[in-house]
User: Fold this.
Amino acid sequence: MLNLAKENEELINDFDELLFAIWFHDIIYKSRSKRNEKRSAKYALKKLKNFNLKELKKDKISKLILSTKKHKILVKGDLDNAYLLDFDLAIFGQDWEVYQTYTQKIRKEYKMFPNFLYRPARKKVLQGFLDREKLYFTEKYKNLFEEQARENLQRELNLYN
Assistant:
């Protein structure tokens, strides 16, 4: 995500805030928790409380982090939130071998769940993404990744049927 941010620096309105959001967005992560983003945003605000970089928009950083929970735009007015979410899902649009390695890491992350629990939950996540009108919010990443991402998600979903 940091590499993608650097590649798009000229398109980002608040680059420092976006970098902090990337850095902190999964800093607190427990695979069984539904509060990771909220906790990560709170942690970021705590750590950045005394950080003095010009007029750092800490509220924006928090909202950017929170937007990764449901992959919905929370910060309007520029495309920073769109880019953050597109960077976060960029893995979906990679070639199948790269994506497959990612899915193996996801399975390992949830290894505490037996297949009879994991598979239906994973299918629900995959179907949720496939049901979205669009996976990517920026034209750039929609054009780059949308088609391949949908193929990858569907291909993985088919493995569970």
The mean pLDDT is 93. Residues 86 and 136 are 5 Å apart (CA to CA).
